[in-house]
């Protein structure tokens, strides 16, 4: 199936997901904590996931399925193409009543993302990309920020990533740090030029990163794991060894500053 046709399907699915999620009030939605410290889930996450798990496989019955809110199955590993879905990325943000949560939908073809959507319905932001077709926000082309010295750049990252053990010389570079709870939204903001980089040294679930991976690359950015290995998706254990996503120059500078023998950050 051509990536452009998959993208059309993902856009339809994302908008339908937004209609469902907006029927819930985040702070009053029923909420549970997942086992093993994997974070919260709400009735909105489950309702969106149920719709997507019906809609998307019906449209592409030969595709595999990987979603944060579905029980994983090894059956996806035998499929060339796989949906990789986070029904609501930034569930804590959703539950607190913030508007920075997103629907993250992607298709991986033999490990490479070929169609992707990140949709923030409360902010009316629809980020889209199909392989080779560029990246867009609400239909307008987007591009990563212009090159800049690292000490003047804006980087989206959590405070634990600045700890001394992760950096050569024992200190993180002097960049301007900001934070957003949704990894997908962080990647989208680098793609649209609002920030020069996003960085997480924590092991990251594929569904948080998949859509942003393609949108960032189609916008002219570079993305890798924390050891500068390319990201591949639909792994047996769907975890990535951190993520460094940035403009080309900033990506290089961050990797040169990171200690490759650093421990990373435990957990997901």
TrEMBL record:
Pfam families: Inositol_P
Gene3D superfamilies in the record: 3.40.190.80, Fructose-1,6-Bisphosphatase, subunit A, domain 1
InterPro entries: Inositol_monophosphatase-like (IPR000760), Inositol_monophosphatase_CS (IPR020550)
Plastid is among the record's keywords: no
Keyword line: Magnesium, Metal-binding
Family designation: Belongs to the inositol monophosphatase superfamily.
Protein name: 3'(2'),5'-bisphosphate nucleotidase CysQ
Organism: Pseudophaeobacter arcticus
């Amino acid at each position: 199936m051509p990536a452009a046709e998959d993208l059309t399907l993902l856009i339809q699915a994302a908008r339908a997901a937004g209609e469902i999620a907006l029927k819930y009030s985040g702070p009053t939605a029923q909420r549970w904590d997942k086992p093993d410290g994997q974070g919260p889930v709400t009735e909105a996450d489950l309702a969106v996931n149920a719709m997507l798990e019906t809609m998307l496989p019906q449209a592409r019955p030969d595709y595999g399925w990987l979603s944060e809110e579905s029980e994983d199955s090894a059956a996806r590993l035998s499929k060339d193409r796989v949906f990789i879905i986070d029904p609501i990325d930034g569930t804590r943000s959703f539950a607190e009543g913030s508007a920075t949560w997103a629907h993250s939908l992607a298709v991986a073809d033999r490990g490479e993302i070929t169609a992707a959507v990140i949709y923030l319905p409360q902010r009316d932001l629809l980020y889209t990309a199909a392989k080779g077709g560029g990246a867009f926000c609400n239909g307008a082309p987007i591009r990563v920020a212009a090159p800049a010295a690292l000490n003047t750049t804006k980087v989206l990252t959590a405070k634990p990533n600045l700890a001394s053990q992760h950096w050569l010389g024992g200190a993180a570079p002097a960049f301007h740090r900001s934070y957003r709870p949704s990894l997908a939204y962080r990647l989208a903001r680098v793609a649209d030029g609002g920030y020069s980089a996003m960085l997480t040294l924590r092991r990251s679930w594929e569904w948080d990163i998949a859509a942003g991976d393609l949108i960032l690359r189609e916008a002219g950015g570079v993305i890798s794991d924390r050891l500068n290995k390319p990201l591949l998706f639909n792994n047996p254990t769907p975890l990535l060894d951190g993520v460094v996503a940035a403009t080309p120059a900033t990506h290089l500078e961050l990797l040169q500053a990171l200690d490759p023998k650093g421990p990373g950050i435990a957990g997901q």
